[in-house]
Amino acid sequence: MDHLKIERANYCGLSMGGLTGIGLAARHPERFSRVVLSNTAALIGSDAV
Fold first, then answer.
1. Among 2, 11, 29, 48, which has the highest number of CB atoms less than 10 A from its own CB?
2. E-strand spans in 1-49?
3. What is the pLDDT of residue 48?
């Protein structure tokens, strides 16, 4: 976004893209007008063997 000189954007993340959106929105909330997360989770996989 900085390289393209985009100050704010809408973000839509699907599945693993949702994990990216969670991180982006948590770290840079001022950069996003809206964040849509679909079919995602806060964690993918488990520690269980």
1. 11
2. 9-14, 32-38
3. 65
Q: What is the pLDDT of residue 25?
A: 95
12-36 per-residue burial string, b: 16 or more CB within 10 A, e: under 16: ebeeeebbebbebbeeeeeeeeebe
If you ran DSSP here, which 8-state letter would residue 3 be given? T
- What pLDDT was estimated at residue 5? 97
d(CA 4, CA 48): 42
Phi, psi of 25 (to 5 degrees): -65, -35
The SS3 assignment for 37 reads strand
